[in-house]
Design goal:
- By secondary structure, the chain is an all-alpha fold.
- The protein folds into three domains: about 10-165 and about 175-180, no CATH class; about 180-265; about 270-403, no CATH class.
- It is about 70% helix and about 0% strand.
- It contains 15 helices and no strands.
- The longest helix has about 40 residues, at about 180-220.
């Protein structure tokens, strides 16, 4: 048996829903079968990580052990002390496995890939969140089983959405009423159907049928036009953007739907991002659990630290520095290639420009029109800026110019 990537085919859902049936029946009658929940998790983890290739499963086990030692080591320390430097050390320890995985393509050393498995980034975000909230004092106690249950919640394990421990814990410790669970089932079915439409129909159309053809056409002009740019590159930009959204949004809908069937209200990842009126609005709609995680645990904390230590006095400059740090980290998180880093810098500049424009609008509110046309233009402009950033993100320009 090979490793089975969650939500990779329509057939997967038949077996998954059969596995979930006892959980659904239990919740319908107001009970959580904790032992069966554990059994279902083990089955999914075995199929996803312990198939024909055992290396991912071994990596997952090693990772969970390492993170448990780190998290509970910090919890033990935090009960008596609260040093910033010790806190920073434990945060660094929590992200070491992810650093190893991200450095592996650069170092090209297979021994460094001990922790290489699907979803390591999202599990790391969860571990770091718990350490940071221990530091803040909002998480004062956590049991090993609770940590593992949160970390290994199988609907979201490989690609999110990224839940928060306290919100997740509130759901799993309570059984929804019959009326609440009916609403969750209704929501889950709707999201499941929408996800099937997004990923296996629309995503398939853009990603499998259109994208390869547009790629070949765009590449055919690489030696016939300046920088190889042609109208087909523009076509690639839009096709790839549609594929990226529908494929990932479809996956996220599956994760939320399965969570709902299990009585857990996992937060949504997308909220009509292509209707955004500016780039800040876009990041409040696109991959929301990731963008909010970066906002809360990197941007806000960095901004607070700069203000606290008075490293920079001008608030606009503080925001701009934090934007650069935030999106540079986000770019590097995706991978250590020039186009991911440029993608991060591009969005930092877009956010800075957007803030400058909003400040200008506030000062000249009476002179700048605001109507349906200007709002439509703002959506159109934001959509094209975002699609251009996805062209950078796709790595196609690297292939066009340097391969």
């Amino acid at each position: 048996m090979h490793n089975i990537t969650p939500y990779s085919s329509p057939h997967y859902f038949i077996y998954l829903l059969l596995l979930l049936l006892p959980i659904i029946i239990g919740l319908w009658f107001g009970k959580r079968f904790k032992v069966y929940d554990f059994f279902a998790t083990v089955v999914i983890l075995i199929t996803a990580f312990f198939g024909g290739n055992m290396s991912q499963g071994i990596s997952l086990i090693a990772y969970v052990i390492f993170e448990m030692i780190t998290v509970f080591g910090y919890l033990s320390y935090r009960k008596k002390h609260n040093s910033f430097w010790i806190f920073s050390l434990f945060v660094f320890l929590a992200i070491i496995p992810l650093i190893f995985v991200k450095l592996d393509p650069l170092i090209k050393n297979p021994t460094i890939s001990l922790f290489a498995f699907m979803g390591i980034s999202y599990l790391t975000f969860k571990s770091v969140e718990i350490i940071m909230e221990m530091r803040d004092g909002v998480i004062k106690e956590i049991k090993p089983f609770e940590f593992m249950r949160f970390l290994l919640f199988f609907p979201t394990i490989t690609s999110g959405p990224i839940d928060r421990f306290r919100r997740f814990q509130k759901d799993v410790l309570n059984v929804p009423s019959r009326e609440e669970y009916v609403e969750l089932l209704h929501s889950g079915v709707n999201k499941l159907m929408q996800g099937l439409l997004y990923k296996f129909i629309i995503g398939y159309f853009f990603g499998t049928l259109l994208l390869p053809k547009v790629t070949i056409l765009a590449m055919s002009y690489r030696n016939q036009a300046p920088l190889g740019l042609s109208w087909y590159v523009l076509a690639y930009m839009y096709v790839y953007s549609m594929y990226l959204f529908f494929d990932f949004a479809g996956y996220s809908l599956f994760a939320v739907a399965i969570s709902n069937f299990m009585g857990v209200k996992t937060p949504m990842n997308f909220n009509a991002p292509f209707k955004s009126k500016n780039i800040k609005d876009f990041w409040n709609r696109w991959h929301m659990t990731l963008s909010f995680w970066f906002r809360d645990f990197i941007y806000m904390r960095l901004t607070f630290t700069i203000i606290k230590h008075k490293w920079i006095k001008n608030r606009v400059a503080i925001a701009n520095v934090s934007y650069f740090a935030l999106f540079l980290i986000m770019g590097i998180w995706h991978g250590e290639t020039w186009y991911y880093i440029v993608y991060g810098i591009f969005h930092a500049l877009a956010m800075i420009t957007n803030d400058a424009w909003l400040r200008f609008k506030r000062k000249h509110r009476k002179q700048i029109p605001s109507n349906k046309f200007t709002q439509a233009f703002a959506i159109f402009l934001t959509f094209n800026i975002v699609c251009f950033s996805f062209l950078i993100f796709s790595g196609f320009l690297d292939k066009l110019w340097f391969s």
